Fold this protein.
Amino acid sequence: MKKIAFIPARSGSKRLPNKNVKMLGHMPLVCWTLNAFLDSQCFDEVIFSSDSERYWDIVNEYISSEKLKFHLRTERESGDKIKIFDYIKDNIDVLCKEESIFSLGLPTCPFRNSNHVQECFSLFESEKRPVFSASEYEFSVSFSFSIEGNNWKPLFENSPMITGNTRSQEQTKFYRPNGAVYIFNSSFLNSGVKTFYDGAMPYIMGKNDSIDVDTIEDFQIAKSLI
């Protein structure tokens, strides 16, 4: 089957304007992701998807590859209320003319590298299941609580805030998707699924490799690591 990677980078970011093409080290943020998928040598085609042709021009200043293609989305298809899952699901038959292995990588996770992509791909091939990348929460969610008036309500019945077992080493580890890599067969999206995670297997990445750039503070952290 053909192997396709899809990297979306819309231009309408509000909290950090034009974040996808802000310079991070020696190249724009999105180029870190594009290079990770290109350098993995796992894909026949890497699609850069954006509503901005200027972004495509910027990418071409830093990356030259016959595998790199451009997919232009309309402004309506790139609004901040459009979920990337819905867009890909609605357009999978356009993006993949035939049954293919399809991968998604969000451009805001710059420290995922080609080794992570290769390992995800190998896991997908060996387990014959969709794969998504994830990382451990920075702070144990077992301490989570909601606010009701002037009171707090624990998320878990055995909250350490109730039991007194507050040693961090004894807390259950919890994980979250980090947006670095998703891999599945294109037909997966035509099977009635509502998320990328339905029946999928997690691939765990380190915390520093999973940094997500969404705000100016996130960007400053990424710059310091670069």
